[in-house]
């Protein structure tokens, strides 16, 4: 049974509210994306396996736990997913980072992968796909389909804000993928923006508006 979790921790709610504000500038917005990604990473890695080791503390010998060495890979969906990478790496610095970029062919409506570079051993890694806005769920679904074609078997998705449509579509297309988001918003508008949302995440991260 996969996980679909709205991680509505007070710190996440607070930081997402600051991000929603249209007057929040690029630098602050970028920092907030990183911070929320880090908080979501904490929750999404709760099931990582641990093993016991012996540690000599200043007081005595102790048996304590460390990560059991499950290999991780982050795959931001270009371009907005890039804004989440540094925050994630703060907590899991040894993770490898792949990248994927797709667009839809307007005639065939099929996804076209214009860039994809993944770690060679992607099949052995726990893969975390990153995209701040889960709007229609189309690009997240397409990206995960492509990443599976490259061999990945264990995949999670982390987003900052989801629309109900996006959550439903991604879960229906990839029922094996655990989904973690910081907020579930009301709906999509006619232009495909999440309402109330925060506008175009990529433009706000990179200051391109
Ligand atoms: N992508 C964004 O950046 N914002 C939205 O609201 C929807 C998709």
From TrEMBL:
InterPro entries: PRTase-like, PRTase_dom, Upp_B, UPRT, UPRTase/APRTase. Residues 7-208 form the Phosphoribosyltransferase domain. Binds 1 Mg(2+) ion per subunit. The magnesium is bound as Mg-PRPP. 5-phospho-alpha-D-ribose 1-diphosphate binds at residues 79, 104, 131-139, 200. Its cofactor is Mg(2+). Keywords: Allosteric enzyme, Glycosyltransferase, GTP-binding, Magnesium, Nucleotide-binding, Transferase. Catalyzes the conversion of uracil and 5-phospho-alpha-D-ribose 1-diphosphate (PRPP) to UMP and diphosphate. This is Uracil phosphoribosyltransferase. It comes from Gemmiger gallinarum. The gene is upp.
